[in-house]
């Protein structure tokens, strides 16, 4: 019974693993390009296990951005998880404290979505099922990170094979993914213009903090929305 | 990277890991304690990802050179319709095409 649950989880997580793997490899390769060692890249994948924020982290580190801003940015990109853990609380009441610890550590977007779907179908959300679903994503995430990093070490000049455009395009995809959020356009416009100006007048890495603060301040001052929105999920995100 | 810089990176990763874990347990803690985030702070926090990410996109577009800007433009147009993996593939193809033809 419990073993069945585990394998059911593994089967459910398999397609997620397949679609996340290119991003794991991309993260590994670009981490090396931004000054990480093989160990650093896998260490980050193993302890954060949050793809989009890992990409943000390596890019900011590569730009020599101040450490506090790197950590804050990663926190902010992952902030949506707060909504997930609030929402799955009712399904995991029967887990032990240790099980809850691992449940939250492994709570990536597709894991959240599948847990909700399973509860909605009336199937039991067991820890073994949850762990099976998580492990088929978590373990390959480490392996693809390592493979990507090894590949990254073999590349002399990333520009020659076009690796340098991948992060800006990846981030652009993320920005577009947030477009349903309140005040998205004014925030993006303010941060973009402020960062372009700061890059010109102040220089890197200040363009990141100055641009970000411009958009955040604007969002804090704009009129508050009336309704509450669903959390925005990143479809491929680990 | 010297060893003190490397230690700093390890600390950054550890701090980021703790911060990430806090986001993953935070909602659970909040819902069991029934506290709310002030709405203006929530609005500001909600804007942080788009704000930070825009600063990584816009300067690359303006100062990255013609080939990067053109590839980003192509990726932007397809990005409104396709998944991000396709966006990356098409953007990469665009920049490689431009670099190949301008050699």
UniProtKB/TrEMBL annotation, chain A:
The keyword Protein biosynthesis does not apply. Coiled coil: none annotated. InterPro entries: Brnchd-chn_aa_trnsp_permease (IPR011606). Its main location: membrane. Keywords: Cell membrane, Membrane, Transmembrane, Transmembrane helix, Transport. The chain crosses the membrane at residues 12-31, 68-86, 127-154, 160-177, 184-202, 208-225. It is a multi-pass membrane protein. It comes from the Bacteria. It is found in: Cell membrane. Belongs to the AzlC family. This is AzlC family ABC transporter permease.
TrEMBL record, chain B:
The chain crosses the membrane at residues 6-31, 43-63, 69-95. Keywords: Membrane, Transmembrane, Transmembrane helix. This is AzlD family protein. It comes from Rhizobium herbae. The lineage of its organism: Bacteria, Pseudomonadati, Pseudomonadota, Alphaproteobacteria, Hyphomicrobiales.
């Amino acid at each position: 019974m419990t073993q069945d649950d585990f394998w059911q989880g593994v089967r459910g997580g398999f397609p997620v693993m397949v679609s996340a793997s290119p991003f794991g490899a991309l993260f590994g390769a670009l981490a090396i390009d931004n000054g990480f060692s093989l160990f650093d890249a896998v260490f980050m994948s193993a302890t954060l296990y949050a793809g989009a924020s890992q990409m943000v982290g390596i890019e900011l580190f590569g730009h020599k951005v101040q450490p506090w801003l790197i950590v804050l940015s990663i926190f902010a990109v992952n902030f949506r998880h707060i909504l997930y853990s609030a929402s799955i609380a009712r399904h995991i009441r029967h887990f032990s404290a240790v099980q809850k610890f691992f449940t939250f550590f492994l709570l990536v977007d597709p894991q959240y979505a599948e847990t909700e779907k399973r509860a909605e179908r009336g199937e039991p959300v067991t820890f073994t099922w949850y762990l099976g679903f998580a492990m088929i994503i978590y373990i390959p995430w480490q392996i693809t990170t390592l493979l990507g990093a090894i590949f990254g070490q073999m590349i002399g000049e990333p520009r020659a094979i076009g690796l340098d455009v991948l992060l800006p395009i990846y981030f652009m995809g993320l920005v577009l993914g947030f477009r349903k959020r309140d005040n998205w356009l004014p925030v993006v416009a303010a941060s973009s213009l402020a960062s372009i100006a700061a890059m010109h007048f102040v220089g890197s890495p200040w363009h990141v903090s100055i641009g970000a603060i411009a958009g955040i301040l604007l969002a804090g001052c704009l009129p508050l929305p009336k309704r509450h929105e669903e959390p925005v999920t990143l479809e491929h995100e680990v | 990277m010297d060893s003190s810089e490397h230690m700093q990176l390890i600390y950054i990763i550890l701090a980021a890991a703790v911060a990430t874990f806090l986001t993953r347990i935070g909602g659970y803690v909040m819902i069991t304690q029934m506290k709310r985030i002030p709405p203006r702070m929530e609005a500001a926090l909600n804007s942080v990802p788009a704000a930070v990410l825009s600063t990584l996109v816009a300067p690359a577009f303006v100062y990255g050179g013609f080939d990067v800007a053109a590839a980003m433009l192509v990726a932007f147009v397809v990005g409104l319709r396709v998944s991000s993996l396709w966006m990356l593939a098409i953007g990469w193809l665009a920049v490689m095409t431009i670099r190949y033809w301008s050699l």
